[in-house]
Amino acid sequence: MKRIDSCVSVYPAFRIKEGQEQAIRSLLKVIIGRAENEPATEIFSMAYTGNKLYLRESYTNIEGFKAHLESVSDIIADFFSMLELETLHVVAPESEAEEMKSLMNSMNMQADLFVLEGGFAR
């Protein structure tokens, strides 16, 4: 049965720094392995075109997103050192939007914030 969509979603696009393609792919395998065991992570996938990386992440709520950040806290600096952020879109319910924006700002990531107004999820 479908439910009202109240997920927090993060959609960053990065340019992979020269010579870091294999390293970022290897590190993402570790990150995805951890995300698979996070109960509130609903989607975590990666896509590539040339030297660009796109991530699609959705969490049950903001607490799920925070739990994901905690699970990768030991490797996130390495992850970001291999990339340059090009765009970041965050989609969140109004009740969690400002906190998501603050979290992104605390990581020095400027996000376009979209407030969720309707839809469904499975």
Keywords:
122 residues; alpha+beta; Alpha-Beta Plaits; five-stranded mixed beta sheet; two-stranded antiparallel sheet; 4 helices; globular
Explained architecture:
With 122 residues, the chain is an alpha+beta fold. The protein has a single domain (3-121), classed as Alpha-Beta Plaits (2-Layer Sandwich). Helix content is 37%, strand content 38%. The protein has four helices and seven strands, in the order E-E-H-E-E-H-H-E-H-E-E. It has helices at residues 21-36, 62-71, 76-81, 94-106; strands at residues 3-4, 8-16, 41-49, 52-59, 83-93, 112-116, 120-121. The strands form two sheets. Strands 3-4-2-5-6 form a five-stranded mixed sheet. The longest helix has 16 residues, at 21-36. The model has no long low-confidence stretch (mean pLDDT 95).
Give a short overview:
This protein is 37% helix and 38% strand.
CATH class: Alpha Beta
Q: Indicate the CATH architecture.
A: 2-Layer Sandwich
Task: Tell me the span between the first and last alpha carbons.
Answer: 6 Å
Share of helix among residues? 25-40%
User: What can be said about the biggest beta sheet?
Assistant: 5 strands, mixed
Question: Can you count the helices?
Answer: 4
Tell me the domain tally: 1
Shape assignment: globular
